[in-house]
Amino acid sequence: MFRKDFYWGGATAANQFEGAWDADGKGASLTDHCTNGSAKNPKWITEKIDEDKWYPSHVGIDFYHKYKEDIALAAEMGFNIFRMSINWSRIFPTGEEETPNQAGLDFYDKVFDELAKYNIEPIVTLSHFEIPYALIDKYNGWADRKVIDLFVNYSKTVIDYFADKVNLWLTFNEINAASMQNGVTVSVSNLQGYTGPMDKVPFNKQLSYQSLHHQLIGAAEVAKYIHNNYPNKKIGCMNLFITKYPLTCDPVDVLESQKQNRIVNWFCSDVQVRGYYPSYAQRFFDENNIKLNITDQDKQILKEGIVDFYTHSYYCSNCVTGDDKRRAESKPDANFGLANPHLKISDWGWVIDPKGLRYTLNEIYDRYQIPIMLVENGFGAYDKLEADKTIHDDYRIEYLKAHIEQMHEAVKDGVDLLGYTTWGWIDIVSASTGEMAKRYGFVYVDKQDDGTGDLSRYKKDSFYWYKKVIESNGKCL
């Protein structure tokens, strides 16, 4: 089965569950300027905070004040790892301060101490779709090379400060999403002065890939810093993986799936694991009129800043075709691909494909031959809180069970799998839609899309199921 020291736990993001958006010296971040939305209506970003709109990250689920209660629930399930992120603007409110905000450091210090009390290992993401809003306002975010130095300064600050409490680090969450025009992760560039729906943000490939290059340089500098100063620590990359299948066996579709897998799923990790841009990148840049400013020093930094392990999210797969007629006749999914006619789709248009996880894990390990951790996987659904305060979520158990079974198959195939952290183990604000109704957690949080609710926590049926899974190291499903 799974290794004896397998990591079992759950994953969160600071901007989706901490709340306390302006407490104790914290500055506004990108997400703090995002309103709520839904599966049908996109969330908006506003240049100024509008008192007539609801900004769900301002409260989140108030982990900032309820962290002891929530970590106790994680410990009750048996977590031995807790994936979380640090909110950059809680440490450097505008990103340019000379000294960090001590209250922000103190908060995470208390969180790490609480985790240690239960022998739960933190794995910490330095930037989870997050950047101080002041850096968007002043520099257009990562479009300006200046932001590399600011990110590296922030990263060194927290790595040094928590050196005795954090052993596992990740740089950017789903870094490859920065090049996708999906209205979810436009934290890279194109937002300066923008007010409007997230799915209408102007998309400029040249600017996006130059900004992404800056992120890759920042990530490599941080990896190099950890290797040089903390050789006992490990740092990984984190990618969004949406496996692309050819819609048919027509070579046109097969070549299209290879092309899209390269650009969507492999591009960033090829750089972060291997230390240089992949061979196929130049043709993509040429055909899209992308001319990156890459210095010789940049190339050296990438070479010296490779990662120790690979992490990724996996929720779904989709199909692609190079034939316009087939594309027009096929059903689109929610991730700019086509629905697989052999598979079911969730309420949010995400294709449910457990066996695709086994395929994906094998592809990743064959390509890189370094340890892998699946740090996001879960099922967003409409959960109902019954009158007796129970939540029956068999659909979530079914989804997770099927994916854990395929993880086991991948391990038998030879994949070196380190661990598994389910996404949103406690209900949090959805990154894609800004709503609470899309719930992933084992723990229900009484918080609704209109901001009502008393934030009480209730254990779902899946809570007790996952506890048994962990107790049996994945044998009892």
Q: Which terms would index this structure?
A:
alpha/beta, two-stranded antiparallel sheet, about 475 residues
Structural features, described:
By secondary structure, the chain is an alpha/beta fold. Helix content is 38%, strand content 14%. The protein is built from 14 helices and twelve strands. It has helices spanning 14-17, 63-77, 88-91, 102-117, 133-139, 146-161, 205-229, 251-274, 281-287, 296-304, 324-329, 354-368, 394-413, 461-471; strands spanning 7-11, 44-45, 81-85, 121-127, 168-172, 196-197, 234-246, 309-320, 372-376, 417-423, 443-445, 457-459. Strands 1-3-4-5-7-8-9-10 form an eight-stranded parallel barrel, surrounded by five helices. The protein has a two-stranded antiparallel ribbon with strand order 2-6. Strand 9 (372-376), helix 13 (394-413) and strand 10 (417-423) form a beta-alpha-beta unit. It is globular. The chain starts with 6 loop residues before the first strand and ends in a 6-residue tail after the last helix.
N-to-C span? 12 Å
Number of helices: 14
Helical proportion, percent range: 25-40%
| Major sheet description | 8 strands, parallel, barrel
Bulk shape = globular
Strand neighbour order, sheet with most strands? 1-3-4-5-7-8-9-10
Strand content: 5-15%
* SSE string: EHEHEHHEHHEEHEHHHEHHEHEEEH
Q: Radius of gyration, Cα only, in angstroms?
A: 21 Å
Question: Stretches where pLDDT falls below 50 for ≥5 residues?
Answer: none
Q: If you average the pLDDT, what whole number results?
A: 95
Q: Which structural category fits the helices and strands? A: alpha/beta
Count of DSSP strands: 12
